[in-house]
Amino acid sequence: MIYDANTGASANDHDRRHLFKVAVDRAQPIALSHGDGLQSQPVAAGDHAIAFVSAGAKTPPSIGLMRSDGSGQHDLQTGLLPKDFPTANLIAPKAVSFTAADGQIVHGQLFQRTDGRATQPGILFLHGGPPRHMLLGWHYMDY
Fold this sequence. Notes:
Shape: globular
Largest sheet: 4 strands, antiparallel
Low-confidence stretches: none
Mean pLDDT: 86
Radius of gyration: 17 Å
């Protein structure tokens, strides 16, 4: 079985999605993807390939492909963004957390410019999750 989950070996993977496979007769999952990107919605594409949605903090969702052992990961949809798309101006979010007044840990993402200004504007986006768990990159769901 192949699936995606918000876990992995990298820091803050609870705010990402990665691909895994597991035999149906034992609970020993094998990570197929890792790192700062997001991979979700895997589909078997023949006997030895997996298609999936691939995204990152500065790259919107596209279709990716890898071998069933996790090797050879690449995007199939290269060059779809307009040449003037401001990718360099996008800000990669950072995972943050704090303790609320009731003792619960609140998780969030911080989008912070690095232009050296001492004060910067801020926006809080509150939502009722968990169906729309916020991620450290472009989300696989529209909203």
